[in-house]
UniProtKB/TrEMBL annotation:
Record organism: Paractinoplanes deccanensis
Protein's recorded name: DUF2723 domain-containing protein
Listed transmembrane segments: 25-46, 58-78, 85-103, 161-184, 191-210, 216-232, 244-260, 266-284, 296-315, 359-379, 391-411, 423-442, 449-468
Keywords on record: Membrane, Transmembrane, Transmembrane helix
Length: 635
């Protein structure tokens, strides 16, 4: 399998010259096993320190990461490492980098979107129906690739949905690392460069936590990378049969991508278009064989047709789901440029990260920019005569350059999420064009002492980038456990909320339409099996909570709730005492002030005790549940 993956279709795989001096594989296995054990123990210690809020979790975490990753990178890049051992090291590296998220929540969903995907997979396993609407993330049901895979693994193996998801996610994580390796080998045709590209890609902000969560991008990103591998092999195919075979694989994988995740499918089409434009320009100016651009355009158009058809026929709600995020980000960006300067966000505001993590976050962007400029200058001097490889390198340079404009969106509240998600795609371009520069720097040092200094400086730069990108991409509450924090997507789930959701399901049934805030809605919608709504511009259920005591609730909203058969209201009284950590009570576009003080009074949240159309059926102190009685309103 290893030889098949790394062998290029237009030539046999010759024995690597370094294999004659390869170190014993057992020495590599023993050293990395010891390093992995020590690193895993330090990661566990970091989580324990975070639970007790000792403040040492950051240092322990990065020490644990570096204890394994640094020797693994050295083994993967060393000249004496053979191709099979290199692939094994990279697979082990991928497995170890899956540990931080695995240790964060090994027993159930924790991140916001994980609750939605866990519920969707569980529903498929229970009911056997695809494309069911999800109450937590509305468009999740339109992209069943991940959920159907997880439900199938659970049904075949007998393990729980969550543990089936962990198996799928771990496999996808390994496939991402190996896919980047193979893609880099397609372009540069050098095993060491391919290994360095995989390592550099693993430095992106999404790699450790975001693209290892139970989310559809975690699987779709692997499909994207392998689609690009198949596309390059189709363009390079020496014969019609070979080209047709890889073309079929390209179309199949692009179809699987759109069936799994909308943003990844759109990013895939964008990358394929960049490749098409580059090979077309080179065909006109450099005499590239006409079959190369024709193959690229044909496969890109086929993939685009699949994406358009899916979004138009299967998932028409996707455009409406994505549009508000971009529109609000542009409005906020315009506000920052205006006279008032409003609409922006302060980076690391009230963050508990240490100063050196914040400094690394800024330094990482500068190091990436310097590396891209140096790689572009080196690429300008020539890459070789092979047209597909040269075109692929130039296309990745264009893709990597998109990383920096997207980073500006991090300055806006609505654009920050989109900027973080785009980095997983654009960093692929950075990894593939910077990798040969790193290997060239290592090889340029003639003496062993010079190589050691160069390697040390490069490893230090990679460490800064890894720390900085991870810090910029994930808040500490996502990375570490800790005491309960209201308004946190990862720490607001307290036993009291889960007990209330279990009580409602046991006494009233499942799939009830309920009104709730963002954080109660996650628990009631996943563990409780209900259908919560947390408000929107067209359905402002948060106006129920905002209404002052003694004032009538909006008549139109009451009629809408009655017409849509909503039966229950969940009230979390912590909204009157605490401010949400992520500055959201219900949804990102809520018309609620966020000035550092609770936006609700206790009277606003307890007024439902005396309103004629609500009947209290549950109260645990913080959580109260009311049943709607709209017949009284009609009377």
């Amino acid at each position: 399998m290893t030889v098949t993956l790394l062998a290029r279709p237009d030539q046999s795989a010759p024995a690597a010259p370094e294999a004659r001096t390869a170190r014993p594989w057992w020495w590599c296995a023993a050293s990395l096993t010891a390093a992995g054990t020590a690193g895993a123990a330090l990661l566990v210690a970091a989580n324990r320190a975070a639970e007790w809020d000792r403040g040492t979790q950051f240092g322990l975490f990065w020490l644990g990461m570096l204890v394994f990753t640094l020797p693994a990178v050295c083994w993967a890049v060393h000249r004496s490492t053979g191709p099979r051992l290199r692939v094994a090291v990279l697979a082990g590296y991928a497995g170890f980098t899956f540990l931080p998220k695995l240790l964060r929540n090994p027993f159930g969903p924790l991140y916001h979107d994980e609750f939605a995907h866990w519920r969707q997979s569980k529903q498929i396993l229970l009911d056997g129906r695809l494309f069911e609407q999800n109450p937590i993330v509305k468009v999740v049901g339109d992209f069943p690739g991940l959920h159907s895979t997880v439900a199938s693994v659970s049904a075949l193996t007998g393990v729980s949905v969550w543990h089936a998801a962990l198996l799928v996610l771990a496999a996808a994580h390994v496939l991402v690392v190996l896919g980047v390796t193979v893609l880099a080998d397609e372009i540069w045709q050098d095993g060491r460069v391919a290994a360095v590209a995989a390592v550099i890609y693993s430095l992106n902000s999404s790699f450790l936590f975001f693209d290892t969560q139970f989310g559809y991008e975690s699987l779709a990103i692997a499909l994207l990378v392998w689609t690009l591998v198949a596309l390059h092999r189709a363009m390079r195919g020496p014969a019609r049969r070979s080209r047709a075979g890889w073309a079929a694989v390209t179309v199949m994988l692009s179809g699987a991508t759109i069936a799994t995740h909308h943003l990844t499918a759109l990013a895939l089409i964008a990358v394929m278009i960049i490749i098409c434009l580059v090979v077309t320009v080179r065909a006109v100016r450099r005499g590239t064989p006409v079959a190369v651009p024709l193959t690229a355009w044909a496969l890109t158009l086929a993939a685009a047709a699949l994406v358009v058809a899916w979004l138009a026929l299967v998932a028409p709600r996707t455009a409406g789901y994505l549009d508000p995020y971009l529109a609000r980000a542009l409005d906020q960006f315009a506000g920052m440029a205006g006279d008032g300067g409003g609409g922006g966000r302060t980076l690391f505001r009230a963050s508990s990260t240490p100063w050196w993590e914040r400094a690394a976050a800024f330094a990482a962007q500068g190091l990436a920019a310097i590396a891209m400029v140096a790689a572009a200058l080196r690429l300008r001097r020539g890459h070789g005569a092979e047209p597909v490889a040269r075109s692929g390198a130039l296309a990745m340079l264009v893709l990597g350059s998109c990383y920096f404009p997207a980073a500006l969106l991090i300055l806006t509240p609505s654009g920050a999420e989109g900027a973080r998600r785009s980095w997983a795609f654009s960093y692929l371009g950075i990894a593939l064009v910077v990798a040969p520069l790193v290997v060239a720097l290592l090889d340029r040092a003639a003496r062993r002492a010079g190589r050691a200094v160069t390697a040390g400086l490069l490893l230090g730069a990679c460490t800064v980038v890894l720390v900085g990108n991870t810090t910029a991409g994930m808040n500490p509450s996502y990375r570490f456990p800790g005491p309960p924090v209201f308004g946190s997507d990862t720490r607001s789930s307290i036993p009291e909320v889960r007990a209330a959701s279990a009580w409602l399901r046991a006494t009233q049934g499942r799939e009830l339409r309920i009104v709730a805030d963002r954080y109660s809605g996650l628990i009631f919608g996943s563990y409780g099996g209900q259908n919560p709504v947390t408000g929107s511009v067209t359905f402002p259920t948060y106006d129920l909570y905002l209404t002052q005591p003694g004032q009538p609730a909006p008549r139109r909203l009451i009629e809408q709730l009655d017409a849509w058969r909503f039966g229950y209201l969940v009230v979390d009284k912590r909204m009157a005492r605490e401010v949400p950590e992520i500055q959201i009570y219900f949804e990102t576009n809520e018309p609620i002030p966020h000035d550092g003080r609770p936006a609700f009074t206790l009277g606003q949240l307890t007024k439902f005790d005396s309103t004629p159309w609500t009947i209290k059926i549950y109260d645990s102190g913080n959580i109260a549940i009311y049943r709607f009685d709209f017949e009284r309103v009609a009377r």
